[in-house]
Protein 1
Amino acid sequence: MGRILSCVIKFLQDEFDGEDLNADEDGMVSFRLDDDRGHEWGCLVFSDEDSEQLMFYSVVLDTASEAQRNEVMKFVTLANYGLHIGNFELDLDDGEVRFKTSMDVEGVEVTEAICRNLMELNFMIMGRYFEGLRAVMAGSAAAADAIADIEDDDDDDDDDDDE
């Protein structure tokens, strides 16, 4: 097991008590996450020891139907605009939607703090967009409306911080 994957597994075992972690020899770890709002999604960690890269994905457990993919694509595009770190991805062939954070760790010691930052940011952003994304995937919301609701909620939270 390489240096990147070793650190990832140690962090996940410490953080999640090693529950339901599935690791393979190809440098991938998978597990499911339930956030504090009751949302559940799949998580994948890939380590490429040769190119020294670490990638973390939160994956929506169901897929966008073919009929909804254009609207989901619009949601993904609107959500990605302005994100500083990470991005949503949509597989147009099968409708899988995921959020990715990644980094090049060449020449860098991979620490639990690096793993925590990469994964917790991913969890936070997926949690922020999850309900709106699922509504668009289900056809019960338009992409622009769902994004506007998310951004309005964020603006309201920022206003509360100013008081």
Protein 2
Amino acid sequence: MDLKDIIAIVTAIASLISAVATLIQVVKKRKITIVIKSWGIWISVILTVIFISSTIWLWTTPPADTSRYGFEAGSMGWIPQTYVTDQGIIEVAQSTDRAKLGRHSLKLTADLEGGHPNRSKGEAYMEIPIQNLENKPISVWVYVPKELLGDPAKPNGIQVFVKDGSWRGEYGTWLDITPARADTWFQVTLVPGRLAPPDGYMAPDFDPTQIRAVGVKVAIGEGSTYTYRGQIYVDVVDWPE
């Protein structure tokens, strides 16, 4: 809860108290007889209304997103990959459809087709000031609909990736899109290092101390001809200082 939220709560409480006071004055001026045993009853009523209002407000207000990339301020520089073999993500945009935290996420529009030379996989990423991310876990939360499950024998998957100053890449462990991960938020991670992650990839001479881009890759399973056209959501992208 930030200062803006606190001010809103205080203002709402003050308005409620003011309204009750006005009502009392109106009742007195019109000489309407009301039996009040004690002011404690009025205070109890006011506090009850405040408690109920605050509870509803807190329940309906999503937790704040304090991650590096929570997409509350737009797409934050993320773009779809245009490299010839990785064009399965055709658009990215801020979305209010769903969010892991806050009110927004990044919606990736996918046009994936297994076996296609250009669209069997797709990526979305953003460039960052070159920095040392060696041994620093990068976390990304992803939401995929059940329609992206694909062929259980050749499951579709998700990876987090990074690129160094020379655009050499490291891709994290391939994470299958399973029924347990469909229609819900799940976490995908990568810890940049000097050894390729299990079921991942690292380009020769990759330098984890010179990272210039962070992104997410979505792909149709190897050997599958499954097709998916729809949305994928990304939120709460973060790593430690």
Protein 3
Amino acid sequence: MKFKWMAVVLVLMLALSACASSQKPSASQNGDNGATQGTGSSGGGSKEQSITVVARSGTYYNTLSALAPKFEQETGIRVNVQEVGRDGYLQRVSTQLIGRGDGMDVVLLLNNYIGQFAAGGQLESLDSYMEQYSRSMDHFLPVAADAVKYNDQVYAMPLDVSTMFLVYRTDLIDTPPTTWEEYREVAKRFTQSINPDSPTEFGTTFQGKRGETQPKEWYQYFWAMGGEMFDADLKPQLHSQSGIDALQYVVDNFSTLKIVPPDITTYEFPEVLSAFQNGKVAMAIEWNSAYPTFADPEKSPEVYDKFAIAEVPGGKSYMQTWTLAVNSASKNKDAAFQFISWVTNEAAKDYALAGGIPAVKSVLEDPEVVKVRPEFPKIVETLGKAQSEPNLPEWPLIHEFITDAITAALAGEKTPEAALEEADENIVNLLESRGYYN
């Protein structure tokens, strides 16, 4: 199986790093005993403490930059938020972490990377800091709190949660579909090649571009059809009847029924957003972060006043959270922890009002916040039943195997059954080589 050279590099470097000691000094061993102690001091003197936070362009960089001055005012700790572009963001910060440089103190990561870097020793366990500062995870949504743990230790703080909704045209669809069978029938009704009188060209979409999002939409079909990622012995179950049915469903929508655009293999968040905005489709499975754009009369004049959101058919939503973690190579770990704890607790409401989606239930239900972000109660409802990916160190590579399978099936290169059989074989070989079945 071929996969990207970056994935190979990451595996080799992680294998080397795993040989190193994974013991991490505590806050006191690092000389980081609070904001009053300066870093880089010499000769008994003290310098102003500062930390560097690396964040992806867009909402995350903008909101963290907006909050940093308030944190500086309250603590005296200066915060330098560095912006990294969206394209290749995770690969770039992964390389920095593996290189064990101390140039960044706080890193923004997706939760499915935590297992990889916690096991490799690149992330600092936060348990001792939480005890020192009397912090807990109780204010977070449970699904988000669980997503930042590895081996029962906390390695990051949930910053921004994401899930997917069914977004649909209320002027065309009276009642949103609640099963995938109903979903297909509605999509057929609004596809012009099937119904020439349809006001939309296609009934729906699929985020079929190989990469970050593609499997995450597919999981929701898979879970709703009874699928499970692994059995009790950690053997992959993609090549189950549920997996085959779920992938066949997507392939048939694309190649046989043609109820989705013919270029869905180029579709991710922006393309789905555009297709619904511009009246190309009657409904779509889309990330919740699209809601403000759909509701904006200037950005979405065709749909802003005639759309609604509902749970995805089958009610098995996907959840991910962007998290803030502390680089284990940082020389400012205590200050870094103070910042990530503050942003995700005391400043969570400010973060929401600045455009973020915090993983804090009380904020998501706050009347002042809901007035600005009316979709938040639906997010709380959805995340109460949502699932996430297993937090295995090997998950980024497993993700590659799954997206390879979906891509091959959509391209007609393999049947869904053959594609998923190969994915399961690759996952078993990977986990076996890491000693999981010994």
Protein 4
Amino acid sequence: MAATLGTAVGKPDLQWIQFTDNDLLQNLVGVGMNPHIAGQMVEMYAAIRSSLLYEHYHTNKPAKFGAVKLRDFAKDFAAVYNNKSQ
């Protein structure tokens, strides 16, 4: 995903970087986020990463998925990104 979106916005070397929950918590608090809310966000992202958040979805998947592919979305993303970043 990082490579596709990075290429679309002219940053083909864009990388996906993972860091620990504690690093995320410290960074969120470090930029001024309320520690309780930061902790809840870290918990939510951990649930996403472990797939716990998606258990219901995985047992009730739609019969038909959307038709938009990442490469197609990347074009729209790049147009908005480039317009906003100038």
